[in-house]
Write a structure and sequence with these properties.
alpha/beta; TIM Barrel; 11% strand; binds flavin mononucleotide; binds iron/sulfur cluster; oxidoreductase; oxidoreductase activity
């Protein structure tokens, strides 16, 4: 079945006005009294410009640890959740729908790699199983440090309950749905992954944790529309022998749809947080920006170390150059096997490409809705152009300059002047105006 971009879509009882969404992107909006206003500043333009759905990026279910970047938003208490009402109300007033993504970083947490957090905090990282060999080897170089706490069975239940409690709070303050950060090497992916998960209890079954999280959310937050990413680890480095294959991800997707998830976002990735998730160029300007040098030194330990991390990014960029629609085939395979909506993101840049992903162009549809991530940093009101003009394309140049400053807690935004200049010209020409 195919659909036009401006056709409404029902996801678990939530009606979206069209099939274009803003993919979850870290906002680094913190969790102080103004967090909701800061999030509104970032997310409302997308809603105002007509996005059918706006995902708020990874938001932590616990009050301590688990952050994958500095300054992340937490939703571990009713008080912090209440601060987020400002963004849900503002998005609704703008005519949009907003879904929060829940997360815990586990072995990807900040305390493993960020020098300042390592020094300041004596915090363990939650782990599904003992730290894998390659990460222990990397720790010997001094770039990573682990003080892992392997979750007991009872603690896994408690963690899942925290996802349920966070979902309840999210519903209470007006979010229209809950998304799970099950890719990007967060703890949910670590449960799913044969590389990380070497448990011997019931959670040795990779999909079991997502089933339990589903049950906890349903028990506490009722029939809130429930989304999850579904990861592969196909793009892991060659020296890592085990990982989620495409077949594994398709099987997991089928299982989760049958279990009660309302929508799936299949994404190719790796066993590690690398650039296979955000394919693009080496972020030359992002690394060179003078205002972030002291932040990089603080994060990585010294100027030399920051340079070595930059060199590793250069290698990653060669392995993962800019690409178009890199999750389309995976989404298409999943969509052929499940009855719930499939959402596709990753390197989507042109309106024609969006229409083809929705099945309007010959090939079978890959998705029921299509999302863009980084292009929203470049053009917060991008939907206005994409919805109005069948020939339009996003300005984002896949240069990834926006990514590196986030290691210092800087907000996510486009940091490439030529792209920003083009946006200014479009603004002046009224390209983002809507009737
Ligand atoms: C800076 C940055 C932050 C991201 N944060 C999240 C996140 O919080 N949760 C998530 O599931 N994906 C996250 N992603 C992945 C995006 O949702 C998206 O899948 C990816 O950027 C590919 O889409 P794009 O090519 O349109 O940017 C992030 C990507 C970037 C670049
Ligand atoms: S810096 Fe701007 S142009 Fe470059 S990837 Fe980020 S949003 Fe796109």
């Amino acid at each position: 079945m195919t659909a036009a971009l401006d056709e409404p879509l029902d996801i678990g009882g939530l009606t979206l006005q069209n099939r274009l969404y803003r993919a979850p992107l870290l906002e680094c909006a913190g969790d102080d009294a103004d967090a909701g206003e800061r999030l509104a500043e970032e997310l409302v333009p997308a809603a105002r410009a007509g996005a059918g759905l706006v995902f708020q990026g990874a938001t932590l279910v616990r009050g301590e640890g688990g952050a994958v970047a500095p300054n992340m938003t937490r939703i571990d208490t009713a008080e912090k959740a209440e601060r987020l009402r400002a963004v849900t109300e503002a998005v609704h007033e703008a005519g949009g729908r907003i879904v929060v993504q829940l997360d815990h970083g586990g072995l990807r947490s900040l305390e493993t790699w960020h020098r300042e957090y390592r020094a300041a905090a004596d915090r363990e990282q939650l782990a599904v199983s003992p730290v894998p060999f390659h990460l222990r080897a990397a720790a010997k170089t001094g770039f990573l440090e682990y003080d892992a706490h392997v979750l007991s069975t009872a603690e896994v239940y408690e963690l899942a309950a925290d996802f349920g409690r966070a979902a309840r709070r999210a519903v209470d303050v007006g979010y229209d749905g809950v998304h799970l950060s099950s890719a990007n090497m967060g703890i949910v992916q670590q449960f799913c992954s044969p590389y990380y998960n070497r448990r011997e209890d019931e959670f040795a079954d990779g999909g079991r944790f997502l089933e339990l999280v589903h049950d906890e959310i349903r028990e506490r937050a009722g029939d809130v529309p429930l989304f999850t990413k579904v990861p592969t680890e196909e793009h892991r480095p060659p020296f890592v022998r085990t990982g989620l294959s495409t077949d594994d991800a398709v099987a997991l997707a089928v299982r989760l749809a049958e279990y009660g998830y309302d929508a799936l976002v299949p994404v190719h990735g790796s066993t590690f947080w690398d650039m296979s998730l955000i394919r693009g160029e080496y972020p030359r300007r992002g690394w060179a920006a003078s205002q972030f040098q002291s932040g990089y030194e603080a994060a990585f330990g010294s100027r030399l170390r920051a340079r070595l991390v930059a060199a590793a990014t250069r290698v990653e960029a060669v392995r993962n150059p800019p690409a178009r629609g890199w999750n389309a085939d995976l989404c298409r395979r999943v969509r052929q096997r499940v009855d719930v909506p499939v959402l596709c993101e990753g390197g989507v840049r042109e309106r024609g490409q969006i229409d083809r992903l929705l099945g309007n162009g010959g090939a079978p549809a890959a998705a029921d809705a299509v999302g863009l991530g980084r292009p929203f940093y470049a053009e917060p009101e991008l939907p206005a152009r994409l919805l109005a003009d069948a020939e339009s394309a996003a300005l984002c140049a896949d240069c990834n300059n926006c990514i590196v400053p986030q290691a210092t807690g800087a907000p996510g935004m486009c940091r490439t002047p030529s792209v920003l200049r083009e946006r200014g010209e479009l603004e002046r020409a009224g390209a983002y105006d809507r009737d």
